[in-house]
């Protein structure tokens, strides 16, 4: 068992510049209406989304977290993005406490999620300008930088003034990548960035993730349920199951340890379930974490 | 540059970014805004025609005075509606478009975020209120020989600080209830105006409502603007309106920020800071 993944140290490891993310015994619980208490009851019951996660990510590393829908991947990303408050443990990004120094963390982090999420009537340029201002980039800085970065992600620059709603899903996702990169984040959180994309767009996005790791000194946390993507992009692959991190190792070590020929076999051996399998009750309980 | 100067510059750029985004959206939705403005004109006319209606029914009133009084009430109602709507969109629109997570994880301080929305709301609201007043006044051939428009404008701007503070409190409602929070903002607007003498003197209200009127900024805004436009009062005669507005503004802004921060904390605790609610 990988000590990074399973050991919960009692003391926070000293933060240094070689550690990008340090998560220790991190917990998050959501309250859900207790249907067993009756249709009209307002009683709530706690449903743990993240159960004592402990892991670290080195600077410049790409770590993929594999998990089914509702495994807690998005909750983890949202915790590290300062969008959720935790219920225990700690998380540090480049030495900054995610929950106490959230503004310092926000300067270092950006993300791309499964939904591109833009003001649909506004153009790519306008959406990127809006996002950039929050990171202190004035109009003079973004005027040339936006077309340049759109070109780098493979977006046809001449279409940058068209409303987002006129662009394909793949194009929108490229603008989402550009938005994340525009602010030069040192930690990039990718939450299923290629889900729903056609094979070509998917390959282009993956190529770009590889490129930015080389050129941007970025650390990447990639949450996905695409096994091939995880294996192709990540230095280490974690298996997150019902809020617990069962392993976090290089893909080949993972396969070897769990005796599987493929990462899917390893996932099955680690969790006792196939990658797509979910029971209806679990779905219902865990949908809040998506 | 020192760290504090850099931080200050970032905040100013962020503030500009919030205003800039709203300008983009107005540009993109301009015809919807025109349609909404026409609806506001029609709605205002239904109220302002009441004075002529009373006269036609045999009532003895100073039609010019009552019409102007009603017009000011209706314009303030519409102005307050815009202020609350824009501030409520701080959360509601972002949630609908799905950008809420990106905006709330950006290194933008919440006061600057809300002030940016407030600044845009005031500028947009003032332009709209001015147009509304002019268009509706045109229907009635109103005679306002003593009107002191500069004083009325200053009173409205000063009152806007308080309105922004209250708007911040209503802006948090869509965070707590994604489905119904926006509508609760309209309720706040209605409650505020009903106790403030929007179309009548507060003297006609029950005692407990009159007490509420004394802490409502809309009461002083309506009084001040009516005194300026109907009575011709200048700024030097507006102490009874300006000072309460300054005090209420000084209280409502920190209170609004505090309430919003509580709501944001609640949303982060319960996972409501996301697109689907």
Topology at a glance:
The complex is a heterodimer of chains A (290) and B (277).
Chain A: H1 3-6, E1 19-33, E2 44-58, E3 62-66, H2 73-80, E4 88-93, E5 96-97, H3 102-108, E6 109-113, H4 124-133, H5 139-152, H6 169-182, E7 187-191, H7 199-216, E8 219-224, H8 227-233, E9 236-241, E10 244-249, H9 251-257, H10 263-271, H11 280-286
Parallel strand pairs in A: 3-8, 3-9, 6-7, 7-8
Antiparallel strand pairs in A: 1-2, 1-4, 4-5, 9-10
Chain B: H1 3-28, H2 30-56, H3 63-97, H4 100-104, H5 110-140, H6 149-171, H7 173-176, H8 181-194, H9 207-214, H10 217-229, H11 239-270
Order of helices and strands of chain B: HHHHHHHHHHH
Q: Mean pLDDT of chain B, nearest integer?
A: 92
What would you say the CATH architecture of chain A is?
Answer: 3-Layer(aba) Sandwich
Average pLDDT confidence of chain A is 85
- Major β-sheet of chain A, in short? 6 strands, mixed
Please describe what this structure looks like:
The complex is a heterodimer of chains A (290) and B (277). By secondary structure, chain A is an alpha/beta fold. Chain A has a single domain, classed as P-loop containing nucleotide triphosphate hydrolases (Rossmann fold, 3-Layer(aba) Sandwich). Chain A has helices at 3-6, 73-80, 102-108, 124-133, 139-152, 169-182, 199-216, 227-233, 251-257, 263-271, 280-286, and strands at 19-33, 44-58, 62-66, 88-93, 96-97, 109-113, 187-191, 219-224, 236-241, 244-249. In chain A, the strands form 2 sheets. Chain A has a 6-stranded mixed sheet, with helices on both faces. A 4-stranded antiparallel sheet of chain A has the order 2-1-4-5. In chain A, α4 (124-133) crosses α5 (139-152) and α4 runs parallel beside α6. The longest helix of chain A is centred in the last third of the chain and has 18 residues, at 199-216. In chain A, 48% of the residues are buried. By secondary structure, chain B is mainly alpha-helical. Chain B has one domain (3-270). In chain B, 79% of the residues lie in helices and 0% in strands. Chain B contains 11 helices and no strands. The model of chain B has no long low-confidence stretch (mean pLDDT 92).
């Amino acid at each position: 068992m990988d000590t990074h993944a399973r050991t919960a140290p009692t003391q926070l490891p000293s933060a240094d510049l070689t550690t990008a993310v340090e998560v220790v015994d991190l917990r998050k619980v959501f309250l859900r209406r207790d249907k067993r208490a009756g249709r009209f009851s307002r009683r709530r019951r706690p449903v743990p989304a993240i159960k004592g996660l402990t892991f670290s990510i080195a600077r410049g590393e790409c770590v993929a977290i594999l998990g089914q829908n509702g495994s807690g991947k998005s909750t983890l990303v949202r915790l590290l993005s300062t969008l959720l408050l935790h219920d225990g443990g700690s998380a540090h990004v480049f030495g900054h406490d995610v929950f106490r120094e959230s503004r310092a963390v926000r300067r270092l982090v950006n993300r791309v999620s499964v939904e591109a999420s833009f003001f649909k009537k506004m153009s790519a340029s306008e959406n990127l300008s809006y996002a950039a201002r929050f990171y202190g980039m004035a109009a003079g800085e973004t005027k040339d930088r936006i077309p340049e970065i759109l070109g780098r992600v493979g977006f046809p620059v001449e279409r940058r003034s068209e409303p987002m709603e006129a662009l394909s899903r793949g194009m929108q996702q490229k603008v989402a990548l550009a938005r994340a990169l525009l602010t030069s984040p040192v930690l990039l959180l990718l939450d299923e960035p290629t889900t729903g994309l056609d094979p070509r767009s998917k390959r282009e996005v993956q190529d770009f993730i590889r490129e930015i790791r080389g050129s941007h000194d970025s650390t990447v946390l990639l949450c996905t349920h695409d096994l091939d993507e995880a294996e192709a992009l990540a230095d280490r692959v974690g298996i997150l199951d019902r809020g617990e991190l069962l392993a976090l190792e290089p893909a080949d070590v993972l396969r070897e340890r769990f005796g599987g020929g493929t990462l899917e076999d390893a996932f099955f051996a680690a969790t006792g379930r196939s990658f797509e399998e979910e029971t209806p009750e679990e779905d219902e309980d865990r949908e809040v974490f998506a | 540059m020192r760290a504090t100067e850099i931080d200050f510059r970032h905040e100013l750029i962020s503030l500009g970014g919030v205003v800039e985004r709203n300008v983009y959206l107005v540009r993109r939705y301009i015809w919807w805004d025109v349609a909404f403005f026409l609806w506001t004109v029609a709605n205002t006319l239904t109220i302002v025609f009441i004075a002529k209606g009373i006269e036609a029914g045999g009532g003895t009133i100073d039609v010019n005075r009552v019409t102007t009084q009603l017009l000011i009430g209706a314009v303030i109602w519409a102005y307050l509606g815009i202020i609350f709507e824009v501030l409520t969109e701080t959360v509601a629109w972002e949630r609908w478009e799905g950008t809420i997570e990106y905006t709330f994880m950006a290194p933008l301080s919440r006061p600057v975020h809300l002030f940016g929305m407030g600044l845009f709301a005031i500028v947009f609201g003032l332009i709209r209120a001015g147009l509304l007043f002019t268009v509706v006044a045109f229907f009635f051939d109103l005679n306002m020989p003593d009107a002191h428009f500069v004083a009325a404008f200053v009173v409205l701007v000063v009152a806007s600080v308080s309105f922004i503070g209250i708007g911040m409190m209503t802006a948090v409602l869509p965070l707590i209830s994604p489905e119904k929070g926006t509508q609760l903002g309209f309720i706040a607007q209605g409650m505020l105006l009903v106790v403030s003498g929007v179309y009548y003197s507060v003297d006609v209200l029950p005692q407990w409502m009159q007490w509420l009127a004394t802490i409502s900024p809309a009461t002083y805004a309506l009084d001040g603007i009516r005194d300026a436009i109907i009575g011709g009062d200048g700024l030097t005669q507006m102490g009874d309106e300006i000072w309460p507005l300054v005090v209420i503004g000084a209280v409502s802004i920190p209170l609004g920020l505090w309430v919003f921060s509580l709501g944001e904390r609640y949303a982060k605790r319960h996972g409501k800071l996301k697109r689907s609610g």
